[in-house]
Amino acid sequence: MVNFSQIGNDLYTGRRSIDFIGRQKTWYAFSGVLIVLALIGIFARGLNFGIEFRGGSEFRLTGVSDTSGYEEKAKAAISEAGVGGNVLATVIGGNSVRIQTEAAGDRNEAAKTALAKSFGVAPTTVSASLIGPSWGASVSQKAVQALIVFLLLVALVMAIYFRTWKMAVSGLVALIHDLIITVGVYALFGFEITPSSVIGFLTILGYSLYDTVVVFDKVRENTAEAIGSRRQSYSQAANLAVNQTLVRSINTTVVALLPIFAILVVGFTKLGPGTLLDLSLALFVGIAVGAYSSIFIATPLLVDLRRGEPALQDLAKHVAKVQAREEVLVSGGGAAVADAPADGRPSSVPADAPADAVDALGRPVHKWAATGPRNQPKRPPRSRR
Questions:
Q1: Which listed residue, 136, 255, 311, 316, has the most CB atoms within 10 A of its CB?
Q2: Cβ-count burial of 125 within 10 angstroms (0-12 exposed, 13-18 middle, 19+ buried)?
């Protein structure tokens, strides 16, 4: 049986490791495919904006006993009332029907009467509302403004907190990555975009940013220690940070998605379209994509942005030499130590030197190495008394 706690402990200590940084091209390619599909959906198929954005009339019928063939009934009634344009009908909660049309104008009462007759309900159970397109345009404008302000503040805060603009750029790229894919899912599957969906889009950016900042904070801690000790390269320290936060990211994401998934199931099967369903759908898609980007996109991109810095290049070369020397010493052979004694000690250390005369890398740490057995300081003569 798989011991997940042991796996998490091994990932944190470095006993096990997933090469997130070394396989960054694979993650980039996968994200590239998702983004291309999303853009195809957005620009080729288009977004299905709700009535709040495009304007029109909405009719709601409650207490409908028979919802079979509701789409045909709704289209026939709207056509009979003389209202043109597309008709979108949806069953809500099992006994309510929502019909969205073009602006009915002075045909509003005629449409209510025709719908009540078609569905076999009293005219008083039919409610109507008219939404102008100017309201939707105002909402869209405010949403774009909020998004721009949010991204600017995020970039500023991350640059100040992490003291490097490259972390801010990596975090912003991950946010835009999440937003494009989430909106693309809406476009590809024809989900309706409502003001609740827009709220969900902005919410998932905050969640994705939170997850990315947690990983980046561990990256900063590990890389600072690696630069100081010169025992790990920047990419190795960053990869260890992602492994150390992997279990936490997965657990947090699963815990967040479970209740949202439950709301989605209830919304699709019982409640039907509405604010709750629109918000939960955006959150579910966005949180899942945000967890992916914080692990597979943000940190590998950060390493790629900093890989060319001279100090980090010098650190990588130094670490490579040290690790190569350690591998040779551990293996106990190779051309580099062909002239070394059988016990792996340097030639400067006498064969009769004690075992602690060299450290793990074969470097002399005992006075034997400096003086040799013949030049040992003489002990003072013992007293004859």
A1: 136
A2: middle
Place of tokens 């288009």: 46
**CA-angle at 209, arms to 204 and 214, nearest 5°:** 130
The residue behind tokens 């989900």 is: 191
CB-CB contact of 201 with 167 (8 Å): no
Q: Report the predicted TM-score, pTM, of the whole model to 2 decimal places.
A: 0.71
Which stretches within 41-94 are classed as H helix? Answer: 51-54, 70-81
Angle between helices 234-266 and 275-296 (to 10 degrees): 160
> Mind listing the pLDDT tens digit for each residue in 172-205?
899 889 989 988 988 888 888 877 788 788 788 7
- Say how far apart CA 9 and CA 7 lie, in whole Å: 5
d(CA 168, CA 155): 5
SS3 364: strand
| CATH code reported for the domain at 19-49+135-310 | 1.20.1640.10
Does residue 88 sit in helix, strand or coil?
Answer: strand
| HSE value, Cβ hemisphere, 13 Å, CA-based, for 335 | 0
Cβ neighbours of residue 207 under 8 Å, at least 6 residues apart?
256, 283, 286, 287, 290
Largest interatomic CA distance in the chain: 131
Distance CA 17, CA 154 (A): 31
Domain ranges of the chain: 19-49+135-310, 56-131
Tens digit of each residue's pLDDT (9 = 90 or more) over 230-253 = 888 888 899 999 988 888 888 888
The C-alpha atoms of residue 282 and residue 274 are separated, in whole angstroms, by: 13
Fold assignment, 56-131: Alpha-Beta Plaits (3.30.70)
Helix, coil or strand: residue 81: helix
